[in-house]
């Protein structure tokens, strides 16, 4: 399949991994790139030298293009930006804050950049400022989310900007991918589906919890502090949500959240860990290799796209 995204990045399939902090490390980014998509290293708040090591490790595991996601909320965001400008990955996606300070350094380094956008106003603004593409992400996604659904964002934004558009949030099947293309998308960004990949460094108990999830298994917490976080329901999520409703101060909420993601996703604390998950986790069935996931996505997507013309007969 050829789209503006595959042509721009030199990849086989228009599938890009979401920028998942701690998860987008190790073998996972390289496995996605080797399978024809674009793997992404999730820099999160890692020290600059650790990010450089992750880039070097990924290059040892693949000769295909891969990218880096920058979190503009990271205390060392300028250091991380400097590292990617020096290392020159195939793509940088930018979330968690104002991407504008990144534009000039990334342009100077010759690195394509896609900001993650929650609204038409910001999409138009970043398009006019020279973004090479944008990612529109609905509230169905895991982790940090906004207020609009993926379907609404597609209708509102696609066709209103000139740059390529990636669609994210709730994309985990080939039929959803086909729907995005029918709406005019140039590719998809997908995170939750890769959480149960064999190459994903997440804890086995976390992967099993995702497989057991249904369509009512996630909740959004952290709204009172500026942006929501979609997570699996557990004791941590219940306690955090109730404390928010009760108006507990920010310092107390921060203390509860300290280290919670690492406890849950990486160390396997299924009760007091923060377990990031998109709503599409209800479609996860088993742990399998990245290549199988991408092959299934593309086969199903192409099947539904071939069926589409028959609707007009």
Helices and strands in order:
Blueprint: H1 4-9, E1 15-17, H2 28-34, E2 39-42, H3 48-61, E3 66-71, H4 77-87, E4 91-95, H5 100-109, E5 113-117, H6 120-128, E6 134-137, E7 143-145, H7 150-157, E8 165-168, H8 174-182, E9 187-190, H9 204-212, E10 218-221, E11 228-232, H10 235-245, H11 250-257, H12 260-266, H13 290-307
Parallel strand pairs: 1-9, 2-3, 3-4, 4-5, 5-6, 6-8, 8-9
Antiparallel strand pairs: 7-11, 10-11
Helix pairs in contact: 3-4, 4-5, 8-13
Structure commentary:
The protein is of the alpha/beta class and 313 residues long. 41% of the residues lie in helices and 15% in strands. It has helices at 4-9, 28-34, 48-61, 77-87, 100-109, 120-128, 150-157, 174-182, 204-212, 235-245, 250-257, 260-266, 290-307, and strands at 15-17, 39-42, 66-71, 91-95, 113-117, 134-137, 143-145, 165-168, 187-190, 218-221, 228-232. The strands form two sheets. The chain has an eight-stranded parallel beta sheet with strand order 1-9-8-6-5-4-3-2. Strands 7-11-10 form a three-stranded antiparallel beta sheet. Helix 4 links the parallel strand 3 and strand 4 (91-95). Helix 4 packs parallel to helix 5 (100-109). It is globular, with a radius of gyration of 18 Å.
Number of strands: 11
Strand content: 15-25%
Q: Please give the share of residues in helix.
A: 40-55%
Rounded radius of gyration (Å): 18 Å
Count of helix runs: 13
Low-confidence stretches: none
Tell me about the biggest sheet?
8 strands, parallel
Secondary-structure class: alpha/beta
* Termini gap: 24 Å
The strand line-up of the biggest sheet is: 1-9-8-6-5-4-3-2
What general form does the structure show? globular
User: Would you list the SSEs in sequence order as H and E?
Assistant: HEHEHEHEHEHEEHEHEHEEHHHH
**Mean of the pLDDT scores?**
95
């Amino acid at each position: 399949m050829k789209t503006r995204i595959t042509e721009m990045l030199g990849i086989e399939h228009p599938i890009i991994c979401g920028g998942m902090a701690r998860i987008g490390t190790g073998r996972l980014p390289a496995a996605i790139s080797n399978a024809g998509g674009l793997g992404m290293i999730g820099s999160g708040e890692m020290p600059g030298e650790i990010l450089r090591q992750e880039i070097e490790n990924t290059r040892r595991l693949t000769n295909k293009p891969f990218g880096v996601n920058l979190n503009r909320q990271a205390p060392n965001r300028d250091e991380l930006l400097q590292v990617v400008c020096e290392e020159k990955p195939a793509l940088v996606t930018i979330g968690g804050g104002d991407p504008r300070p990144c534009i000039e350094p990334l342009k100077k380094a010759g690195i394509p950049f896609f900001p993650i956008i929650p609204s038409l106003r910001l999409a138009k603004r970043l398009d006019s400022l020279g973004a090479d593409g944008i990612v529109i992400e609905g509230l169905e996604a895991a982790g940090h989310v906004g207020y609009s659904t993926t379907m609404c964002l597609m209708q509102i934004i696609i066709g209103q900007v000139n740059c390529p558009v990636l669609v994210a949030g709730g994309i985990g099947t080939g039929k959803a991918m086909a729907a995005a293309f029918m709406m005019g998308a140039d590719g998809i960004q997908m995170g939750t589906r890769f959480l149960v990949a064999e190459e994903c460094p997440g804890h086995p108990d976390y992967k099993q919890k995702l497989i057991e999830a249904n369509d009512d298994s996630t909740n959004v917490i952290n709204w009172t502090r500026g942006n929501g976080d979609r997570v699996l329901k557990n004791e941590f999520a219940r306690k955090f949500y109730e404390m928010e409703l009760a108006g507990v101060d920010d310092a107390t909420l921060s203390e509860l959240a300290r280290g919670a993601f690492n406890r849950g996703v990486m160390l396997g604390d299924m009760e007091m860990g923060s377990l990031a998950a998109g709503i599409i986790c209800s479609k996860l069935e088993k742990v399998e290799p990245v290549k199988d996931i991408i092959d299934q996505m593309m086969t199903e997507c192409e099947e539904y796209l071939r069926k589409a013309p028959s609707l007009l007969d």
